[in-house]
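Predict structure. Input: GGDEF domain-containing protein, 699 residues.
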Amino acid sequence: MDQLELRRTNKALAESKRRLETITETIPQMVWSARSNGYNASYNHRWYEFTGVPPGSADGEGWDRVVHPDDRDRVLSAWQDSLATGEDYEIEYRLRHHSGVYRWILGRGSPFRDSQGRIERWYGTYTDIDDWKKAEASLVDGEERYRALIEASTAIVWRASKDGSIIEGWGWETFCGQGPDAYRGEGWLDAVHPDDRERVMAAWRETLASPKPSANEYRVLHRDGQYRWIHARVVPLKGTDGSIREWVGTITDINDSKQAEAELWRAANHDSLTGLPNRVLFQLRLEQAVAEAKQNNGAVSLLLIDLDDFKDVNDTLGHDAGDALLKETAARLSMMTRDCDTVARLGGDEFAVLLVEPFRLNHATGLAESMIKRLRQPYSYAGRALVTRASIGVAAFPDHDSEPVELMKDADIALFRAKAEGRNRVTAYSPAMRASTEQRLTLGREVREAISRDCIVPFYQPKVCLSTGRIIGVEALARWRHPTKGILTPDTFGAAFDDPELATAIGKRLIGKISSDMRRWLDAGINPGRVGVNLSCAEFGQPDLAEDILRILALVKVPTDHFEIEVTEKVLLEGRSDSVSATLEKFQRHGVQIALDDFGTGYASLAHLKRFPVHHIKIDRTFVFDLEQDAGDEAIVAAVIGLGRSLNIQVTAEGVETEGQAQRLRELGCNNAQGYLFAKPMAVSELSSYFSNNIRPSA
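Output follows.
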C-alpha cells in the first residue's frame, strides 16, 4: 500500500472513530468499552455525568469503586465469567449516583471478534433502571403483602374465569377439604348444602348475567362433617374496554354469628320455660295461616286455653310446682297436635293452639274436649299426684271472623264465657257473645267513670230485732248515682264485680265512705250497731284485704265491734279457700264479726259453718217470700233457726215485706229481720233522719 492509500485509510478510520464517538456521546445510555483482557478503556460522558467522578478516572480497574459494596463481588464474578467464556455480559446492580445515593442499573456487554473469531474488544451499555426496580419491588411487596393478608385472613379467597368457572382459591381446601381438582369449575357446588344449591346457583347465574358486586349466605360442608353458614361476596374485574376479565370473591365463616342470631331470634319468639312459641310468634303464624286460608279457601281454628287451678298450685305448692305444671301442659298439648299446627304459651297460665287444614270448627271443638280430658289426668310432682282443669274458648275462620285480630277477640270472648259458666269446659264463639262482651266492656268503662266522679255510694238498710223492734245494725249496699238513670242497684252493674280491678276499686271507695259515715254517727251520739259490708270474690283475691280495712277503721277511729263482713257462699265456693279462711280469721281476731249471706243457696252451707269463723247467718229471701204458704220453705227456715240456736249463731231473715212473714218468723224463734217491711235501703242523709225520727239502735 503506497503512502497515499495509507493516508486515505487512516483518514477513514479516524473519521469512523470520530463518528462512533459522536454517536456514543449522543445516545441516552451510558456506553463503555474494554479491551479483550477486560481492562476498561473508555466511558462516554453519560457515565461520568451519572456517577459524578472526574473524566478518565474510571479507566483500568477504577470503575468498580462506584459499585455498591454489597454488589461488587457479584459484579466482578459475572464479568470474569464472561471474559472466560466469551459470552454476553448482563447483570443488574447498584451504581453510586452523583447525588450520593445508589441507583439500580442494567449492565450489558458483548464481545467484538475479528475474522478468526478472536475477541478484540468488549462494548456495552449501562441503563438506569432504578425507577423500574422500585416499581417492581413495590409490586412484589404488594403481592407478598396481599398473599400475607390472604394467608393471615380467616376469609377464603378465590378467582373465577369470566364464565364463572373457578380458577383457583386460597383457604377452600383447609375449610371444606376439597382439593383443587375437586372445586375447580363447578365442583365447589358439591360442598354446598343440598337445600341451598338451587338458590345459590340461581343467584350466581343472575350475577353472571348482570355483572355487578353481589353477596349471598348459604351453608357449606366443613371438613369436620358439619354444614356451616358462610357469607360469599363476589366482585367483577373489568378490562380497559369495560368487559369482564375475571371474577374475584371472598368467603367468610359466619356460622357462629348465625347461631347467635338464631338463638336471639328464638329467645325473642319462644317461651323460655316451655320452649313453645310465644305471643309474638303465635300472632305471626296466625296471620300467615289466615292469609293462606283466604287464598286457598281453607280453614283455621283457634283455641285459647286457660288453666283453672294454676294459682292454687302456685300458692299451695310454690312456683316450682307451677312451672312443672306449665311444662307438663305444654308437653300434653304438643302431643295432641300435628307438626303443621302451633301450640304456644301466651303468658302466665294461658296457652293457644292454632289448627290448620283440614281441621274445621267441629274438629277443633272435638279436639278441645279431648284436651280438657287429657289435661285432667293426674301427673306426679314431688311425690304428689296433681290434677288440673282447664277452660277453652274456640273461634274459627271462616265461621266467625276473617281477620286474625278479630279471631283472637272471638276466642277470648268464648274463653271468658267458658270461665263464667263454671270453668272446666269448652265454649265455641257465637256473635251473641260479642254483644254481651261489648255490653260488659261498656259497663266497665262507665263504672270507672262513675268511680272517678264519686258516683258509687253506700245506701243503708236497717236490721231490726223482731222481739223488740230495736235497730241492731244496718247493711251497707252499693248504689250508683247515675246522671240520667237515677239510683242504680247492683242488679244493673253487678257484672262490674267480676272484674277484679273494678271490684277492688269499688270496694275501697265504699269502705272509705262507710267508715266516715260511721264516725259521723258515733260523733253525733248515734250507735249504728254493726254495719255489715258485703265483700266480693274478687276483693278476697287481694292478699292484704283484712289489713287494708282494719287500717281504715283505725284511721277514722271506728271500733271494730261496729263492723261486720258479709260473705256470700259464692266467695267460699269459688274463692281460694285457704286464703279466704286466713282473711276471715284475721278479721275475727280483731273483733270483726263474720256473717254468711244468702244462706241455703249454696252447695256446702253446713261445711262452711264448720270450716269458717261465722257469727251470723242471713236466711236468703227466697225462703222467706213464700214462708206463709209453702210448708217446705217454712221447714227450711225453721231448720236454719234451730241450727243457729244450737251453734249459738245469730240468725237474720232477709226480704221480710209483710207483717205475716214477720209474725211467722217470731213464732219460729227468729231473732232478727231485714226487709221493706221495716225500711228500704236509703242514703246516709235519710238514715240519719231515720235514726233520729224512729227507733234508736240498741247499744
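The domain at 454-693 is CATH 3.20.20.450 (TIM Barrel).
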